[in-house]
Amino acid sequence: MNTKKLLGIILLISVFSFTSCEKDDEIDINQLVGKWYIYNDDPNFAVDGSVTYTFNDDKTCSIDIHDFLSDQGTTLSRTYIIGHDNTLVTLYDEENKYTEQYYIRKLTTSEMVWENASPSDGNSDKKLRKTNE
Length: 133
Hints:
Number of helices: 1
Order of helices and strands: HEEEEEEEE
Low-confidence stretches: 15-24
Mean pLDDT: 85
Number of domains: 1
Strand content: 35-45%
CATH architecture: Beta Barrel
């Protein structure tokens, strides 16, 4: 009986350790700087525009929004702050007002996954891919 309990505890600790390391491996905050576009992998969802986030070393960010139907586009200027544990990004407008906040669930050299940290703000979860520009 004691052996089963000990084995269970060791297994539980191993699972938590592996999960913790795996999560840390998926967030490399050094990969944030660059140009990222939102993509959708749902084949039942039609896309009629594009949104691109460009993160700079100086903590500025531009958001380029383009509507394919009207062929109109706009660019928003933002600043950003990364949380102390590198898993939260918060964006502010030119007047230093909060606009968006996301948990960074994955960040690699080519892919980033955001979960909206403030669902009442009207923003949604996002999947982004890094451009080669």
